[in-house]
Write a sequence for this structure.
């Protein structure tokens, strides 16, 4: 018997008939689905199931549960904690939602749209824009990640400041439980206080409680006008003070405030083609700030100019540039994206996606830098991100010119030092990316026994055999 035949005989009977030839992949065709985005986890699945309908998802889950087979729900495989791929080779099947990619309906008057979970996020944004509406969720992976994956990781991104995390953008959900039960909660209501809000259990729980097959999304009026600036700051407290002033003085028009360090911008300019720093001097910190409105002629430019003038007068901002057209705006945002690309392949990269209360942000970053430098003096620190949400990507790597150094052997020590400090501020060791298979130790270290016990009870209640995404989160 060939290994392909062996794989197929390990699958429940009826699966092939249910899903058809395009809906069931094994062997080499299935192989790539076992690799995560960063190439850190690579485990071959037994098979990849690619259903086209909620009914097929339900029947496939029922068959797998009857067979005692573990199932990994998978979206666009852009997750950063190893949560969407098998945790051991040749034992688990992947349930990939990619073929469930239709917009079910869009109701402009109700500012809502219903989509299949496998829709790519950028396609959802476009469908909303075509109806003169905004679906504000936006982040670097939007061309590949699926709305089901965004929901299951409760993704944040660049517009949280104004519109909230994915959780805040979900009106209704359709979920299939491990035993095949379909929970139809596809209501397009902004108010619905009818008992426990079950959909919240599935948002951000990384596919361990159920498979999301559809969602009703909250839409906003389309953005008609926006202004963007890149500002340079003399210090971290100046960045955070400027954020507070910007927030208070822009009449809720502030839609992004992304902090970047000077070393990150230099790396982006040196390592990513076509990225140029438009600010002439060298300053320790920068922020990309955007204001937007749903109506043209809202005086945004004057508002931004007035804000920058005030920040300069107070000595908080030392230099900067304002984009005067869409092309320039895109170039400014390109710096923010390129900053991530530029250090993704640096040696010994340690990523820490953490959050603390906004009021403690400057203090936290400064103390964390000191702590890391004490352990790994030659490490390069790149702290950047959505600081307006109290979220910083506190990434640490080796400079390319440093042959090898303290970071190489002290990964764990550095990470625990950062996380322990986060805990002192009552922050979160995973602000955006979730727990997956990579941060389970941290969950056990920083969440109380009572919290962990409730998580485990929920898991047992909804998936008594522990077949959905085993080895992840708890
Ligand atoms: C370049 C880049 C930039 C990023 N920027 C941000 C950012 O700014 N903010 C942020 O929050 N995150 C960011 N992320 C990480 C983010 O968590 C993922 O991109 C995304 O949310 C995962 O979506 P996906 O469809 O790729 O899911 P996958 O990676 O396939 O899966 C992720 C998790 O969701 C589960 N899952 C997927 N689909 C379903 C479903 N239908 N039902 C149940 N469970 C499901 C999986 O089992 C897994 O646990 C970024 C990632 C990259 C690569």
């Amino acid at each position: 018997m060939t290994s392909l035949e062996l794989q197929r005989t390990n699958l429940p009977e009826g699966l092939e008939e249910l899903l058809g030839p395009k809906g069931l992949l094994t062997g080499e065709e299935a192989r790539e689905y076992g690799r995560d985005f960063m190439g850190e986890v690579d485990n071959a699945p037994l098979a990849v199931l690619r259903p086209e309908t909620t009914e097929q998802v339900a029947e496939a889950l029922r068959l797998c549960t009857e067979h005692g087979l573990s199932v990994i729900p998978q979206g666009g495989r852009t997750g950063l904690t190893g949560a969407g791929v098998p945790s051991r080779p040749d034992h688990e099947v992947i349930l990939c939602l990619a073929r469930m990619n239709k917009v079910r309906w869009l109701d402009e008057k109700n500012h809502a749209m219903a989509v299949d979970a496998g829709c790519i996020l950028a396609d959802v944004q476009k469908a909303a824009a075509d109806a003169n509406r905004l679906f504000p969720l936006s982040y670097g992976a939007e061309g590949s990640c699926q709305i089901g994956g965004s929901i299951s990781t409760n993704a944040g991104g660049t517009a949280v400041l104004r519109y909230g995390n994915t959780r805040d953008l979900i009106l209704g959900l359709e979920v299939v439980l491990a035993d095949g039960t379909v929970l139809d909660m596809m209501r397009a209501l902004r108010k619905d206080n009818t008992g426990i809000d079950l959909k919240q259990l599935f948002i951000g729980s990384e596919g361990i409680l159920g498979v999301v097959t559809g969602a009703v999304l909250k839409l906003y009026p389309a953005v008609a006008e926006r202004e963007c600036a890149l500002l340079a700051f003399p210090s971290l407290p100046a960045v955070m003070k400027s954020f507070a002033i910007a927030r208070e003085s822009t009449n809720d028009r502030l839609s992004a405030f992304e902090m970047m360090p000077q070393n990150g911008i230099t790396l982006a300019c040196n390592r990513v083609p076509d990225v140029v720093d438009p600010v002439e001097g060298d300053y320790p910190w920068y922020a990309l700030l955007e204001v937007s409105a749903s109506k043209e002629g809202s005086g945004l430019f004057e508002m931004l100019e007035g804000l920058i003038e005030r920040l300069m007068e107070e000595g908080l901002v030392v230099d900067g540039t304002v984009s005067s057209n869409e092309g320039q705006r895109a170039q400014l945002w390109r710096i923010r994206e390129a900053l991530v690309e530029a250090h993704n392949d640096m040696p010994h990269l340690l990523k820490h996606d953490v959050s603390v209360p906004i009021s403690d942000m400057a203090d936290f970053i400064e103390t964390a830098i000191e702590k890391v430098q004490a352990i790994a003096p030659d490490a390069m620190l790149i702290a950047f991100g959505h600081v307006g949400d109290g979220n910083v990507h506190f990434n640490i790597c080796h400079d390319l010119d440093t042959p090898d150094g303290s970071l190489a052997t002290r990964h764990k020590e550095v990470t625990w030092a950062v996380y322990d400090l986060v805990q002192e501020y009552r922050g979160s060791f995973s602000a955006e990316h979730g727990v997956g298979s990579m941060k389970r130790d941290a969950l056990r270290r920083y969440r109380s026994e009572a919290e962990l016990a409730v998580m485990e009870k929920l898991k047992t209640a909804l998936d008594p055999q522990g077949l959905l995404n085993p080895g992840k989160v708890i």
Observations:
- The domain at 103-221 is CATH 3.30.465.10 (Uridine Diphospho-n-acetylenolpyruvylglucosamine Reductase; domain 3).
- Residues 37, 72-80, 83-84, 97, 117, 139-141, 145-146, 148-150, 152-153, 155-157, 206-207, 211-212, 432-433, 469, 472 surround flavin-adenine dinucleotide (CB under 6 Å).
